[in-house]
Design a protein that fits this description.
By secondary structure, the protein is an alpha+beta fold. It is about 50% helix and about 25% strand. It is built from 3 helices and 5 strands; from the N terminus they run αβββββαα. α1 packs across α3. The longest helix is centred in the first third of the chain and has 50 residues.
Length: about 140
């Protein structure tokens, strides 16, 4: 009888340990995803609001690593999950370092119908360039 209690307690302790570790790992991953969203959402927003009509809100609801190793951000616009968007984190070289950036945002056909006429054939700036331009303007206003 004593042996059975010992086995039960050991089993419960192991299950609890793995449960606590699992919760910790999930929190860590969720935290990391949230930081990625916070870092790259402004680039996606400015890109979409610059090149598309009637974009009010941008929601990023998933960050995933695809089999090629790239990181993809998925979401939607204007609170409508049918207006899907996604973007990959790209890397550019700046001062000898690779910097993660969003270059452009892909959209499904429903969002593509909202593309501004002047940008149907050419998009002049990449998302991170638009964000850099906006920050430069804000810095000039502060001076």
């Amino acid at each position: 009888m004593f042996k059975n209690k010992k086995i039960i307690y050991t089993t419960i302790a192991i299950i609890l340990t793995f449960g606590i570790i699992g919760i910790g790992v999930k929190k860590y991953i969720d935290n990391k995803k949230q930081k990625i969203i916070e870092q790259f959402k402004p680039s996606m927003e400015i890109y979409l609001k610059t090149y598309y009509n009637n974009i009010d809100t941008v929601t990023i609801d998933d960050v995933e690593r695809i089999p090629t190793g790239s990181i993809c951000l998925n979401g939607y616009v204007n609170g409508n999950k049918e207006l899907k968007i996604h973007s990959f984190i790209d890397y550019i070289e700046k001062n000898g370092h690779l910097i993660p950036v969003i270059e452009n945002v892909q959209a499904n056909l429903k969002v593509d119908d909202m593309l501004k006429e002047e940008f149907k054939w050419k998009v002049p700036y990449l998302a991170y360039e638009l964000l850099e331009q906006q920050k430069a303007k804000e810095n000039k206003k502060k001076e």
